[in-house]
Design a protein that fits this description.
This protein is α/β, with parallel strands linked by helices and about 170 residues long. The chain has 2 domains: about 120 residues, 3-Layer(aba) Sandwich (Rossmann fold); about 40 residues, no CATH class. About 40% of the residues lie in helices and about 15% in strands. The chain is built from 7 helices and 6 strands; from the N terminus they run βαβαβαβαβαβαα. A 6-stranded parallel sheet has the order 3-2-1-4-5-6, with helices on both faces. Helix 1 links the parallel strand 1 and strand 2. Helix 4 runs parallel beside helix 5. It is globular, with a radius of gyration of 18 Å. The N and C termini lie far apart (about 35 Å).
Length: about 170
């Protein structure tokens, strides 16, 4: 059994834990770190997760075989580099990083350390989507009057002022 630790027990971190815990014969989550431990204590106990102080504690733990990152996007590169230095494989939730340079640094650290680095999937940084965003921002296609999208849930209604998801510097 591969023993994983997750950093970030917000909504998506819990989705990731729930998708594995008690479902897989190969991997399980055993430990977690979150910036709001008081909000996660009940959930962690119900899932059999030991809460630790931070990523450093997880990386120093010899019983942790790999790290899953479900943290704000701006933290991903530094966290991957830390995990690589500790020789811990990483699954990083999307998007990988916010810049090409930080992505290159994280990939280089993982490659140099010889660890597996896996990244979740997201379309927001595809060239076509970036071009569309640029055209709208430049006003090249005129005034935007209507946008229609398809989402699998009412995610926008869950985000409140002050959450990192609504901060354009964290979630472009």
């Amino acid at each position: 059994m591969i023993d994983l630790a997750i950093v970030g027990l917000g909504r998506w971190g819990r989705v990731l834990v729930d998708s594995v815990q008690g479902q897989s014969e190969r991997v399980r989550f055993t430990k977690a770190a979150t910036r709001t431990p008081a909000n996660a204590e009940g959930y962690a106990a119900a899932k059999g997760l030991a809460l630790v102080q931070d990523l450093d504690a997880l990386l120093a733990d010899p019983t942790v075989d790999g790290i899953v990152l479900a943290t704000p996007h701006s933290q991903h590169a530094a966290q991957v580099i830390q995990a690589a230095a500790a020789k811990k494989p990483v699954f990083c939730e999307k998007p990988f990083t916010l810049t090409r340079e930080s992505a290159a640094a994280a990939v280089a650290a993982a490659t140099e350390a010889g660890i597996v680095l896996a990244v979740g999937h997201n379309r927001r940084f595809l060239p076509a989507v970036q071009r569309m965003h640029a055209l709208i921002a430049e006003g090249a296609i005129g005034k935007l009057l209507h946008v229609e999208g398809n989402m699998s849930g009412h995610v926008g209604q869950r985000y409140k002022a002050g959450m990192w998801r609504v901060d354009p510097s964290e979630s472009p």
